[in-house]
Design brief:
It is a single chain. This protein is an all-alpha fold. It has 17 helices and two strands. The protein has one domain. The protein has a two-stranded parallel sheet. Helix 8 runs antiparallel to helix 15.
Length: 388
């Protein structure tokens, strides 16, 4: 039973425009802002509705904060609300990363810009290392003997994802699907497997502002759609997919350009996944940015509007939960593997190593410092070090 709507669609869209413009801090912070503003302060949603949205965002693929925003739009205004809320949330940061892409293309060869990203790249390694650790603890278990024993299979999937990523320097989607299926079969086999006579009702079914080619746009659309369909939880979980594709498979970006693109996502508000717009711009101008962003966010939008009406029933399905847990373990492992690969190529000397370590320590012990501030400090340090 839904609550009586106490806000207009216009008010909802304006809220997500503001959140997308000023919402720094990553997915956890963005979710916290939504709960504070929409549940506690404005009371547009009940606690139950908000928790239902969190659960859907965690179970279905897609960046957590963006998917929750889409779901909130869907609660009272259905498809139109989901569409407008999602667009309003993503649009401000998309515009920002495109503008940064223009600036980057023009000035990336200038020594001052290179000095900035010398420090920024090292800080990014520290940030994503810390994020990988937090994701590991949240998605699998704490580093305690009892927890390790209880979740040994998830830890095995995690290590497989990390090791294979380091060895092959790419992410295998089939590995993710396989770990999901294995964990589901071990922990919660679906009823149709226990009763073979009954067939499943549903089967599980990827500076040139205008310088682009149709072939590039098609490749961008396919690749980013596949990436968006296999991102669970934190937006940084998309990093291994992007690294494998844009650097290793297609060679669209160099290693340093990729690290810079992650840095751009850190210093802009809104969902971290919006880095795809920056990458798309570097590859194929504004059309590439638009296609990359649309392809990445489309899967989570479709999953949300399709699953939301019957989500309570779906969320109670232990087999689906086990499938998602298995996939998440190997995906987070792949993220760790990608951090190792990127780190070995971005930490090029003692100063960059010290910046990366200092970033991790700051995130651990200086609670007032957020990622965008650390990125800016690293940029200043990079310029100072290079000028000496």
């Amino acid at each position: 039973m839904r609550t009586v709507t106490s806000y207009t669609l216009k008010e909802l869209v304006l809220y997500f425009l503001k959140l997308g413009t000023w919402g720094f801090g990553g997915p956890v912070a963005l979710v916290g802002y939504m709960q504070r503003d929409l549940v506690d302060t404005r009371k547009w949603l009940t606690e139950e509705e908000f928790k239902e949205g969190i659960a859907l965002a965690q179970l279905a693929p897609g960046p957590l904060a963006a998917q929750l925003g889409i779901y909130i739009g869907f609660v009272h205004y259905r498809l139109l609300g989901a569409t407008l809320a999602g667009l309003a949330f993503v649009l401000p940061s998309f515009i920002m990363v495109v503008l940064l892409g223009v600036i980057y293309k023009i000035y990336s060869g200038i020594p001052a810009m290179q000095a900035v990203f010398y420090g920024v790249g090292a800080a990014v390694i520290g940030i994503i290392s810390m994020s990988a650790y937090k994701l590991t603890v949240k998605s699998i278990s704490k580093f305690q003997l009892s927890a390790l024993r209880q979740n040994w299979l998830l830890w095995l999937f995690y290590l497989l994802g990390a090791v294979l990523t380091v060895i092959t320097q790419r992410e295998e989607v089939l590995l993710f699907v396989a770990t999901g299926l294995i964990y589901m079969l071990v922990k919660a086999p679906p009823t149709w497997l226990r009763k073979p006579a009954v067939l499943p009702a549903v089967s599980l079914a990827a500076i040139g502002f205008w310088e682009f080619s149709s072939d590039d746009l098609f490749k961008i659309a396919v690749f980013f759609a596949k990436a968006g369909a296999f991102v669970f939880g934190s937006g940084l979980a998309i990093v291994p997919f992007l690294h494998a594709g844009v650097v290793q498979e297609y060679g669209w970006l160099t290693e340093l350009e990729f690290v810079d693109s992650v840095a751009v996502a850190m210093i802009t508000p809104g969902p971290v996944v919006i880095t795809v717009g920056f990458i798309g711009y570097l590859v194929a101008g504004f059309p590439g940015a638009s296609v990359a962003a649309l392809a990445t966010f489309l899967p989570c939008f479709l999953f949300t509007v399709i699953l939301a009406p019957s989500f309570r029933k779906i969320a109670a399905n232990k087999s689906i939960k086990a499938f998602v847990d298995g996939i998440t373990a190997s995906v987070v492992g792949a993220l760790v593997g990608s951090v190792i690969i990127i780190g070995t190529r971005s930490i090029i000397d003692i100063p960059t190593g010290l910046i990366a370590i200092a970033t991790v320590l700051a995130l651990l012990y200086v609670k007032r410092l957020q990622e965008p501030q650390l990125i800016l400090i690293a940029a200043v340090l990079g310029m100072v070090i290079k000028s000496l």
